[in-house]
DNA sequence: ACTGAAAAGAGCGCACT
DNA sequence: AGTGCGCTCTTTTCAGT
């Protein structure tokens, strides 16, 4: 892990908000010429700190307005059941996030769907197909704030 | 909402994986010349379907290895308490996501931190400052899969 | 580690089919 | 809606401080 100075941090914060800014713009932001800014960014890309650049799509405009969090509990806690669960989750497009957690349940999954009909279908015909699942508790998102992916970088 | 054809969908899927691809590359992908690809992308940007382009940073390389989900319940359900809660969440950098949900609790928040010490500090000195909170139940992420932001686009 | 300039490449508009 | 060309801006490399 390469150490970051104040300029790197400002660049990262800027790129997390808008990755399409030109190096020239970024250079003006940090009061440098383009070359060092270019080098700094390339270094952070190569180290893996900047993992990727992605387009963010508005799910609402695709008709995907229902977000649900499902707390899933498995019947017993055996290694291959976890792998089976994980593998199956990877085949489901509507499943956006899967976290294996320590707490009152085993997995927290975030699901993005069109509506309640799709949700019902998802639960009854997709999730419930797994016999390793003993319990599912769902919460529906009414409103969400702060869906930003930007990580605050402190020294 | 403008309707999407198969080419738009392929472009969106490609841009969700890697926003730094050149239009030339994308044009080859969909077997078109650069101009229509450029027009299609601009149209999707202007309609708001493509909301933004962002750099994705690896939290592990910044030492942020602890992800927690906190289920927060408020004391009573009054409008201004929700706004107070929302406003305060917006001031906290470690809070990545806030969802107001229908279920057994009121809010699900996702928190990104360095370690358990930071978590303890977060709960005791930041979250608990809000008197409107009556209960917090936390689950810690041991392992997470599918942390991709890519939305599956079907017709 | 930075500046400045120069070559290579991408974005973007235009005339046309 | 599509192709192909041309101008402009950006990225990327290189010599020099």
Description of the structure:
Chains A, B: Residues 4-65 form the HTH asnC-type domain. Chains A, B: It holds the Pfam family HTH_24. The structure is a homodimer of 155-residue chains. In chain A, 36% of the residues lie in helices and 29% in strands. By secondary structure, the first copy, chain A, is of the alpha+beta class. Chain A has a four-stranded antiparallel beta sheet with strand order 3-4-2-5. In chain A, strand 3 (95-102) and strand 4 form a beta hairpin. The longest helix of chain A is centred in the N-terminal third of the chain and has 13 residues, at 34-46. Chain A is elongated. Chain A starts with 5 loop residues before the first helix and ends in a 10-residue tail after the last strand. The mean pLDDT of chain A is 95. Chain A binds a DNA duplex (17 and 17 nucleotides) through residues 22-24, 32-36, 38-39, 42.
Q: What's the shape of chain A? A: elongated
Could you tell me the number of beta strands of chain A? 5
Computed structural class of chain A: alpha+beta
Q: Low-confidence parts of chain A lasting 5 or more residues at pLDDT below 50?
A: none
Taken as a percent bin, the fraction of beta residues of chain A is: 25-35%
Q: Strand order across the biggest sheet of chain A? A: 3-4-2-5
Number of separate helices of chain A: 5
Assembly category: homodimer
Main beta sheet of chain A: strand number and arrangement? Answer: 4 strands, antiparallel
Helical fraction of chain A: 25-40%
* Average pLDDT for all residues of chain A: 95
Q: Greatest contact pair?
A: A-B, 61 and 62 residues
N to C succession of SSEs of chain A? HHHEEHEEHE
The termini of chain A sit apart by: 13 Å
Computed Rg of chain A:
21 Å
InterPro entries (chains A, B): ArsR-like_HTH, AsnC-type_HTH_dom, Dimeric_a/b-barrel, Tscrpt_reg_AsnC-like, Tscrpt_reg_AsnC/Lrp_C, Tscrpt_reg_HTH_AsnC-type_CS, WH-like_DNA-bd_sf, WH_DNA-bd_sf
Keywords (chains A, B): DNA-binding, Transcription, Transcription regulation
Protein name (chains A, B): Lrp/AsnC family transcriptional regulator
Domain HTH asnC-type (chains A, B): 4-65
